[in-house]
Amino acid sequence: MAIIVNLDVMLAKRKMSLSELAEKVDITLSNLSILKTGKAKAIRFSTLEKICEVLQCQPGDILEFSA
């Protein structure tokens, strides 16, 4: 069981770089990279909300559960 992070998919759909998203969400590039690679242990709802706002998507577009 795992949570899959599809952040790279959403970035590609929006034609946005990781560094551009980091700047708009006000999060460090290294922390965003950790999230993108699926190595993050947690994410704050406020951070997820900002990411969804910038990418104009739903949390389910970024996070996926795989059994």
Summarize the topology.
Layout: E1 2-5, H1 7-14, H2 18-25, H3 29-36, H4 45-55, H5 59-62, E2 63-66
Antiparallel strand pairs: 1-2
CATH topology: 434 Repressor (Amino-terminal Domain)
Structural class: mainly alpha
Taken as a percent bin, the fraction of beta residues is: 5-15%
Principal-axis shape equals globular
Number of helices: 5
Q: Name the CATH class.
A: Mainly Alpha
Q: What ranges have pLDDT less than 50 throughout 5 or more consecutive residues?
A: none
Using the 3D structure, state the CATH architecture.
Orthogonal Bundle
Rg (C-alpha, Å): 11 Å
The count of domains is: 1
**Whole-number mean pLDDT:** 95
Number of strands: 2
Biggest sheet, spatial arrangement of strands:
1-2
**Which bin fits the share of residues in helices?**
55-70%
**Biggest beta-sheet profile:** 2 strands, antiparallel
- Please write the string of helix (H) and strand (E) elements: EHHHHHE
CATH superfamily: lambda repressor-like DNA-binding domains
Q: Termini separation (Å)?
A: 4 Å
- What's the oligomerization state? single chain
